[in-house]
């Protein structure tokens, strides 16, 4: 009989329960969950109750446990658990994108200096196997850009707004009711979740280990029906897009912004809680990966896929990793801006006004990054637009700003 992998599971929320159920149903002949560590011992854990503990040592100090799965919400606590497990030479699977974005370089260093293994497919796009695809399919092909919808909660809200007849507050409440958005939705609608995922993808696609604060990002929390109508009348939908492009000099340009997406784009039809990643390869042109990016079972399924990778002894390849972070290049972006106040401190180049509070023009990424905190207090909505719109006569108010 082959060796049964012993698993220790940190966390038993909706994702943890999904992992437990899938493993019991699909891999019970190859793996065994030996211990589940939680914080609240008063909850009824059903058939998993005999496995429940509140002591992390029951997993970390147990030499019989080969594999640790971490699915808790606290990023710093998750880092402590993952780092200790790796130091002890255990194989670790995590879905905590904020923890990875904040501590990726430290964790990779720990892996290099221990017998540990780190896998985290579920951290980026829910059910989409984007990390494995990048590491294997693009192992010997340079990636020139990644562009995608990386947050299912925001995409669900924007889908409802683009359909019309519903307010932002109503769409957010609906997303929360369905379990796509948290009670505190800031990480999703503020663009932070997409930002953390882009940091992770930048490592695999470009070998860049950067910090989230080095990447320009704005969310959708200040979007209005006016913004939706303006884009719609020009033939666009507004989507929250994360994008990184590698420049010929090796520098990387990255941002996370609401963006005008044309009907000819493959991302135009990505709706509700679905995610999608568009990968541009030097030899294969554009490829699109699509799947559910929110929900307990899609995330759990990606974690179980990593369990299979452990069973097959297939760690990540990370062929793009150079050992040194690439420099974040400066660049200008064409944007649409709507302010609560007509006296916004944001200066645009090649500026054209749509009305007293709405305009288009160009921003410098590093300049906006430098003033990010100041601008965040202004309650402005900012969206990337195609360069062609800056010169188009169609953006005049009388032609396209017809509110519905």
UniProtKB/TrEMBL annotation:
Its EC number is 1.1.1.3. Residues 129-308 form the Homoserine dehydrogenase catalytic domain. Pathway: Amino-acid biosynthesis; L-methionine biosynthesis via de novo pathway; L-homoserine from L-aspartate: step 3/3; Amino-acid biosynthesis; L-threonine biosynthesis; L-threonine from L-aspartate: step 3/5. It catalyses: L-homoserine + NADP(+) = L-aspartate 4-semialdehyde + NADPH + H(+). The keyword Amino-acid biosynthesis applies. One of its GO terms (molecular function) is homoserine dehydrogenase activity. It is an enzyme of class 1 (oxidoreductase). Keywords: Amino-acid biosynthesis, Methionine biosynthesis, NADP, Oxidoreductase, Threonine biosynthesis. Gene3D superfamilies: Dihydrodipicolinate Reductase, domain 2, NAD(P)-binding Rossmann-like Domain. It comes from the Bacteria. Residues 11-121 form the Aspartate/homoserine dehydrogenase NAD-binding domain. NCBIfam families: PRK06349.1. Belongs to the homoserine dehydrogenase family. PANTHER family: HOMOSERINE DEHYDROGENASE. This is Homoserine dehydrogenase. It comes from Shiella aurantiaca.
């Amino acid at each position: 009989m082959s060796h049964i992998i012993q698993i220790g599971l940190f966390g038993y929320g909706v994702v943890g329960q999904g992992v437990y159920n899938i493993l019991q149903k699909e891999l019970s002949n190859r793996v065994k969950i030996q211990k589940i560590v939680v914080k609240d011992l008063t909850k009824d854990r059903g058939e998993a109750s005999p496995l429940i503990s509140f002591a992390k040592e029951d997993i970390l100090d147990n030499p019989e446990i080969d594999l640790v799965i971490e699915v808790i919400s606290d990023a710093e606590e998750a880092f402590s658990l993952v780092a200790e497990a790796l130091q002890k030479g255990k194989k670790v699977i995590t879905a905590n994108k904020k923890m990875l974005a904040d501590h990726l370089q430290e964790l990779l260093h720990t892996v290099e200096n221990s017998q540990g293994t780190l896998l985290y497919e579920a951290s980026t796009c829910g059910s989409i196997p984007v990390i494995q695809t990048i590491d294997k399919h693009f192992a010997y092909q340079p990636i020139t850009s990644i562009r995608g919808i990386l947050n299912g909660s925001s995409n669900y809200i924007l889908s409802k707004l683009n359909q019309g007849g519903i307010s932002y507050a109503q769409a957010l409440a609906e997303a929360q009711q369905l379990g796509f958005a948290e009670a505190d939705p800031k990480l999703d609608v503020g663009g932070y979740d997409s930002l953390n995922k882009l940091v992770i993808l930048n490592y695999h696609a470009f070998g860049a280990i950067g910090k989230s604060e080095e990447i320009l990002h704005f969310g959708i929390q200040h979007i209005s029906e006016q913004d939706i109508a303006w884009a719609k009348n020009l033939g666009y939908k507004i989507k929250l897009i994360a994008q990184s492009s590698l420049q010929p000099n090796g520098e990387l340009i990255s941002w996370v912004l609401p963006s005008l997406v044309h009907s000819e784009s493959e991302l135009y039809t990505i709706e509700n809680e679905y995610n999608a990643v568009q990968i541009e390869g030097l030899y294969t042109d554009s490829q699109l990966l699509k799947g559910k990016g929110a929900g307990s079972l899609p995330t759990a399924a990606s974690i179980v896929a990593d369990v299979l990778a452990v069973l097959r002894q297939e760690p990540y390849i990370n062929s793009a990793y150079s050992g040194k972070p690439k420099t974040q290049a400066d660049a200008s972006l064409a944007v649409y801006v709507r302010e609560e106040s007509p006296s916004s401190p944001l200066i645009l180049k090649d500026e054209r006004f749509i009305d007293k509070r709405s305009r288009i023009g160009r921003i410098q990424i590093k300049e906006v990054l430098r003033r990010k905190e100041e601008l965040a207090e202004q309650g402005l909505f900012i969206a990337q637009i195609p360069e062609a719109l800056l010169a188009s006569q169609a953006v005049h108010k009388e032609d396209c700003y017809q509110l519905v």
